[in-house]
Write a structure and sequence with these properties.
Shape: globular
Number of helices: 5
Largest sheet: 4 strands, antiparallel
Distance between the termini: 14 Å
Radius of gyration: 16 Å
Oligomer: single chain
Number of strands: 8
Strand content: 25-35%
Structural class: alpha+beta
Strand order of the largest sheet: 1-2-8-7
């Protein structure tokens, strides 16, 4: 677990990797012009995605089955599995894969790239400023979520 998720910039990402400009990325920025670049660990990004679903509805585009899904099709497959961490038993929610599908929404995530084992940069893209501003205010609260209770001890 590294530093907490934070708002970042394209310039910070470019220090580590290059951006592959694509028509898809340009189209996303046209449709969702209010962009926040984040840097974070994958579980934090999954918690941020779940928060956006709960506040703004479905994520636009292909549905991703992240660790903390929000899509009703994925949530319907939820089941508990036991895992052992540091000699202690924990129940963990897990989800089965579902058929590829997509959603229409007012926000999306464009993943820029992985920069470490479980860490990377992405662009959260919103249709309006109010959504972007609400997201920025929430960034400090995005942690690793309930699947990592030992991190809160």
């Amino acid at each position: 677990m590294g530093e907490p998720m934070r708002a970042s910039s394209i310039e910070e990402y470019l220090k580590l990797d290059e951006i592959y400009e694509s028509e898809e990325r340009n189209d996303l920025h046209s449709q969702f012009p209010h962009v926040v670049v984040i840097e974070g660990d994958f579980p934090e990004v999954a918690v941020a995605l779940r928060w956006c679903w709960s506040k703004f509805g479905p994520m636009h585009g292909d549905c991703w089955n992240w660790e903390y899904p929000s899509c009703p099709l994925v949530l319907a497959t939820e089941h508990l599995e036991m895992c052992e961490i540091n000699g202690k038993q924990w129940e963990k929610k897990v989800y089965r894969s579902v058929a590829a599908h997509s959603h229409v929404g007012e926000w999306t995530l464009h993943w820029l790239g992985k920069t470490d084992y479980d860490h990377g940069f992405g662009e959260f893209c919103f249709a309006n400023e109010a959504q972007r501003d609400a997201f920025v205010r929430q960034i400090p609260s995005f942690d690793w979520g309930e699947n990592y209770p030992w991190l809160k001890d």
